[in-house]
Amino acid sequence: MIISSSKYNLIHFAHKKNTNDCILKEDSLSEKEAKKLEEIYKSKESDEHKFLKNKIGSLLKKTDGVDQSTVSIDNQYFFSEDKKQKRRPDVYCKYHNKELVFEIQLSPLTQRYILRRKEFYRKRNMYLIWVLENFDKEGQSQMELDLKHLSKHQNFFSLDKSSKKELRLNCDYKKVLNLNNELEVYSSWRREKILLSQLSFDEENYQCYYYNFKENEGKFKVETIINEIKTNHRNGYVDYEEIHSKINNLENEEIDILNDTLQLTKLKPEGKPVLNYWICEAKNYAFINFLLECELINIDVNSTGPKGKSPFQEILLNDNISGKEKIIKNLFIRGYKFSESDKKAVLNIYGNGAEAEELIIACNLASSSPPRIIRFIFDHKNLFCILESIRQTKIMGYNYKANEWIAFINNAIDNYQPHWFYIESALKSYDLWDRLLALDKNGTFHRKLDDFHSQNTKPDNFDSNIGYLYPEAYQKLKNE
What one-character-per-residue DSSP string does 57-88 give? Predict the structure, then answer.
């Protein structure tokens, strides 16, 4: 044997892998030995243990929803799928087609024993109910700590011995009372007498519960967060960082509760998508930015309203919103797809000038790009106007005439020197290089080019963000 520890830092003895049979290895016993060992255990059962299992069994036969023919008291074996393990619960029954097993415990259990029973029944899709007559819910013994760690819902059951007509259990459960601004929970232990019909069934963990501690904890946290969001929005606050942090610290089930409550993928009664509605109603950029930046909030960014307006168009049309570019960038990061209708909206609002062209180029590129590339695009819109003008052989995003290529490219080499190697590679890749050299009658571009190359050498590393969007230019630059 070796000394081992569990995920809860509990020290215990364990058998080495592939060791020979040992009387302490439960699964290594022969059927005859296992039966003999069970008889020894059974002979040592206390009168209280015998009373409890018989009382539970007899009450189950009187309980609505229980298939009386399935009730067994300490006389039915269940086997693991590989037939290597078997268990005989104190009491078994079928309740509304769910299989329940009752295990009575009056003395301390090892963590290994608890885990093995729990996992065995879970794999058989059976709901294990521990009947804990001497369990101290606030106790600190090893068994008490183990059971509390392993019980997701923090519900612990004992038999209500006064029940006569049907099975009734005492349920000790931890109830959420309140929480503070840091979402730390205050709770207390409560006790209720409950019937089987009052139990809920966790089909993932195969645990029964009366009060779902984790769900109610999540609801309290979500209610607090939503109230903070409402306060910020109502008062026009721009700082959502603390709320964002609280959401990031929620557990998966709590995030599900948050999204079920917010319902930002739904439609408003008038048929308008929720995001479109809030953009239309927004008085500043902060609330919309928060919704888009908080990636744990489920939100539909591609729905259009009854009149065909997209969230993108609602942003452009709302004159109360400043910082529209940041919101548009975050919209694309959340998966927005730029449409021909959006392009028409840009041209209607901004006209046919350089500003409209710059935005359309950025949106077209962002529409099919991952988040890191989208951020780079919006941070370098002028650069991408140059690169896209070269690729399409059409000056865009700048106030140059269609034939002013030398002036356009001289501006690029003067003002975008950190990216000139990429621009030069794009000119060569998209067949503009020779044309520019021929157009340079006064030699201004030649002189700027010679001057640049006399002072700069090609870098060893290349920006893969540009390479993602212009792979031909990127590959040519690497190969030269």
Answer: HHHHTTSTTEEEEEEEES---EE-TTSS-EE-
Q: Which residue has the tokens 């290529």?
A: 405
- How confident is the model over 256-288, as pLDDT tens digits? 999 999 988 888 878 889 999 999 999 888 999
Distances (CA, A) of 53 to 48, 57, 79, 194, 443: 9, 6, 21, 18, 101
Locate tokens 């779902």: which residue?
212
pLDDT at 460 over 80: no
Q: What pLDDT, in 10s, does the model give residues 363-396?
A: 999 999 999 999 999 999 999 999 999 999 999 9
Does any domain span residue 10? no
pLDDT at 20 over 50: no
Same-domain status, 165 and 282: no
The answer to whether residue 286 sits within a structural domain is yes
Q: Closest Cα partner for 377 from 477, 478, 470?
A: 470
Strands 86-87 and 78-79: antiparallel
Note if the pTM is more than 0.85. no
Token representation of residue 108: 């301390």
More confident call, 360 vs 144: 360
- The backbone torsions φ and ψ at residue 195, rounded to the nearest 5 degrees and listed phi first, read -100, 165
Q: What is the pLDDT at residue 38? A: 55
Could you give the CA distance from residue 417 to residue 235 in angstroms, rounded to a whole number?
A: 45
- What is the Cα–Cα distance from 57 to 410, expressed in whole angstroms? 92
Tokens of residue 225, six digits: 């967060």
- Same domain? For 423 and 290 the reply is no
Domain that holds residue 274: 263-379
Of 116, 67, 122, which is closest to residue 95 (Cα–Cα)?
A: 67
pLDDT tens digit string along 54-83? 999 999 999 999 999 999 999 999 998 888
Question: Is position 249 within any domain?
Answer: no
Yes or no: say if 268 and 246 are a contact pair by the CB < 8 Å rule: no
Please tell me the distance from the alpha carbon of residue 436 to that of residue 402, in angstroms, as a whole number: 13
Tokens 């940041």 correspond to what residue?
326
| pLDDT reported for residue 44 | 60
The residue among 168, 192, 211 that closes a domain is 211
Contact 248, 296 (CB under 8 A): yes
Cα 94 from Cα 122, distance rounded (Å): 15
